[in-house]
Amino acid sequence: MPEAMPASLHVPEPMARPGHKSDYSNLQFSHAGEVRRPPHDATPDGVRDLAYSLIRVLDDGGAAKGPWAPALDAGALRSGLRAMQKTRAYDARMMRMQRQGQTSFYMQCTGEEAIACGFQAAIEKGDMNFPTYRQQGLLIAQDWPVVDMMCQVLSNEKDRMKGRQLPVFYSSPEAGFFSISGNLGTQFVQAVGWAMASAIRGDSRIAAAWIGDGATAESDFHAALVFASVYRPPVVLNVVNNQWAISTNQIIAGGEYATFAARAHGYAIPALRVDGNDYLAVYAATNWAVTRARQGLGPTLVEWVTYRAAPHSTSDDPSKYRPKDDQQAWPLGDPIDRLKRHLISLGEWSEARHVQLSAEMEEEIAAAAQEARGYGTLHEGPKSSPATIFEDVYKDMPRHLREQRQQMGY
Amino acid sequence: MARRTMIEAIRDAMDVMMERDDRVVVFGQDVGFFGGVFRCTEGLQKKYGSARCFDTPVSETGIVGVAVGMAAYGLRPVSEIQFADYMYPAYDQIVSEAARLRFRSAGDFTAPLVVRMPCGGGIFGAQTHSQSPEALFTHVAGLKTVIPSNPHDAKGLLIAAIEDDDPVIFLEPKRLYNGPFNGHHDRPIVPWSKHELGETPDGHYTLPIGQAAVRRVGSAVTVIAYGTMVHVAETAVEETGVDAEIIDLRSLVPLDIDTIVASVCKTGRCVVVHEATRTSGFGAELAAEIQERCFYHLEAPVRRVTGWDTPYPHAQEWDYFPGPDRVGRALLQALEG
Prior knowledge:
The complex is a heterodimer of chains A (410) and B (337).
Chain A: H1 74-99, H2 113-121, E1 128-130, H3 136-140, H4 146-154, H5 186-200, E2 207-212, H6 219-231, E3 235-241, E4 244-245, E5 248-249, E6 271-275, H7 279-294, E7 300-305, H8 326-329, H9 335-345, H10 351-374, H11 399-408
Parallel strand pairs in A: 1-2, 2-3, 3-7, 6-7
Antiparallel strand pairs in A: 4-5
Helix pairs in contact in A: 1-2, 1-9, 1-10, 2-7, 4-10, 5-6
Chain B: E1 2-3, H1 6-20, E2 24-28, H2 44-48, E3 53-55, H3 60-73, E4 76-80, H4 91-98, H5 101-104, E5 114-119, H6 134-138, E6 144-146, H7 151-163, E7 168-173, E8 199-200, E9 213-216, E10 221-225, H8 228-240, E11 244-248, E12 251-253, H9 257-267, E13 270-277, H10 282-294, E14 303-307, H11 317-320, H12 324-336
Parallel strand pairs in B: 2-3, 2-4, 4-5, 5-7, 6-7, 10-11, 10-13, 13-14
Antiparallel strand pairs in B: 1-8, 6-12, 9-11
């Protein structure tokens, strides 16, 4: 018997910190077109390998390869590109408005646009997303009015949330976008409940749960998986692994020796691990999971491998905890560049047209921002009356809240 | 009309609502085939099928989390937490999600759900099967907290809770399930069949959430209680011969402050009774409201009789439980000033 050793605590460290060269040699990687595409009714056991490989369609040259390449026409591809470019322009403008003091806070999804935009393109009206704060692309990809989103960010008089929520915590039943919570992970199990309700009612609508790599450590994630495993409701369980939870690398969420996709195996839930910076792979994998849900085949977990190119929020400074050129070293590139290259390789796009698109999106967003500012900003102009904070606490205002509203002076 | 135990009344409320409204679904640990560890859901799965009444994994986070999603979808989930002592893993889903969903989405999404949970001691359940966590809910904006003291109220209030468009925490004093416990643990158990409030109408009826009941009219002192302690207070009043007015709150939020104020202004004295621990308990809220609203009518300090500020013990259960003797002493002290 080997001699016992004193225990020592293993605290994982990312491969590189500021001042070091980025190193992604540990990223489990596959080449475009390399990963097989099983039938929708594959058993969880029959797709175990897909939790460790990386489904990719677009290669570095912009060619679409392999069995996952979706049958999307050039029009659909261009509309995906437009949605991503618009999301990026939206983020940039909102970021600037926060810096100008027009709101308190903002969160960009830079580098992750393909996931929300590609996902939204593959689901249907009536389906319900339970998003995190980094899926604004779900709204933009369905052409939800950006003025409405901006008014929420600015907490002004046209903010449908009446100035109650932090910026980016959107809500819209019509858009299939569940109200965002700031308590991480809570929505993941709620999505399973929504899908269970759909199944109880014999409905055809499906739910989509969203969570980040960091929040998979929350108990809600595990509760969601066990409930999804038991009742097999029509839900797609999305884990967006963007490598970073503020300054905490995904290895502190358990990603050092296991993929997040592989967690589904213990629950007999099929799982895919997908290149989240590849619009075509996102669309194809979503389609696979959604088809399963609609055919009564139950839940699917999808790990989207991506990179949070921007700071966590306007209150964050990533230069303190990761190398400066980390994004350039990220092996999966930029989702907009990759789809652009693909369209160009098809002869359906050009650099000049892209410059034009980019300018158009900036113009559209700037015009929307001007309109939204006209309805007020956090610190200037009209906003919901303070008396409104007593509304919607309950459906009917109870006496003690009426009294407190009077004490406030209303 | 029929005499029902509290268990039968609660089951009947769910039965009535499942029959009337196919959006009502009932679930929790052991509630399906087995019918619940306290039998409150017995027969419901057989009658309505396993898609309407089913067992869940042992995960309070999951039970309330899926309830929020189902309610947002448009169902009327009635979930059971097996013991109130087990609700802590679900607290985030209750406090941060169910309670605030309507507010944070400005009414876009709502969570009309009921979380039922047996509470209170008196069954030798020790520190994990005896707690009364009502103040942890009354402190949360957006929740309604209901706690009945008898089968008649339990059925009417549970139906009202299921029909309510806001999330309702429905606390069921487990020592009352089978009879109106008067606090004397060493005396024979009295069944609900011998108590007039065991009489429950058949079919559908509701009691408004937020309305207290005056259980005894009196002029010397007001006793404010809820759940098990209503019966303990009645016993203490009988045994001391004090002409007390006994108010059964039935709902803590919303609170029937009018009934409280009218009574305390009349009697000038007040004893607040609950089984939960004392510090920051709901009694503190009641005492504060009473001194703000009735100060010039008060002849004596508002007194509290509560559980001690310790975990609920096993062997020393009856030293912990605020029984009729402690309540009686407080009544006499309140009369002295």
